[in-house]
Amino acid sequence: TVLATGLTAADMDKSVKFGRSGEFTATGDGSATVGGAQEIKTVDVKLNQLTAQVRLKAINVTFAEGVSESSKVTLEKVELLNRKIDATITNPNSGTTLTKETKTLNKLLAKGANANLATFNTFPNDGTNKAAALAFTVAVEGKWNKVAKEYVINPPTIEGEDGFTNGTDPHQYIEAGYIYNLTVNATVTSENIDCELIFNVLPWDLVEEEISYVDIPTIAEGRFLEWENLGSNGNIETNSATLFITNPAQTFTGTFRLDDPKGATWYASLIPVEGDIDAFGFVDGFSSGTIADGKDAVIKIKSNHTSPQQTNKVRLEIVVKTPDGNTMIVNVLDDDVYGANTRMTIVQNKQ
After folding, report:
1. Lowest mean pLDDT: which of 34-43, 64-73, 122-131?
2. What is the pTM of this model?
3. Rounded to 5, what percent of the chain is helix, strand, coil?
């Protein structure tokens, strides 16, 4: 939040000016003349977060014994009750105006986790008037009309962990500068929905990122990088994870298999280490591919020099780009064979 105000002539004399050496005149209301080049000073400006955020992080749906898992569970709406919408810069707790913010979703909930359902921003609410509360309405097809749940946001029972305490006092209400994540474990019964609410309070500047295991590149069991039919064309030094090319006319084929992430793209690259940067190349069509069940990744590498006048060396690197745009380097070497080495080096010695 920025507070703007009118400047007087005295204020302008104190303000930072940008210009050429010499005199210049600031014209306009309250103008002043400044002589000489002005020194620019750098100062630290501390910013404080004046608001808080309340999130319905997830609803985890399970079904009690005897309740059909085909029953449709719909999250109709989520509300933040007694949301404070006013405050001052100097005192975030000063506001008194409370309101209700409603997000109408009509979202069909799947069995299991349903994440990132609703987010609300609010100024701090110390409960002096009315405490803030998260409310949501759920309907289950064929069971009963609907169920409304309401929870006051005051996680005072969990102490001693980062994010749950402010100084030595546990959070008793919504405070500025924190994110209040609420997860609901919901069990659908024949007559109701039994809910357990879990608070997770984090400082605003703490970055939280969830990574699913299916988003992490994973080598299929026993399908690490292997080179086909080396014979007398090349040999591998396992303690340094180095493939030495002895027959420059040979195309070298390597295979490995990735299980996850499905639909992601893998790319192979040759990073120059020594000698000619163009000493090696890929056979067209054999330097990338898509990860799918039971599908091998195949790379084909060839030397561009039949009789190199210097030792040429490159490092083979495999990168995976996930469907959501994340990029990760993958170790395709078997540590039982190559130990702590995580990249294969390819070398063609001077001849």
Report:
1. 34-43
2. 0.48
3. 5, 45, 50
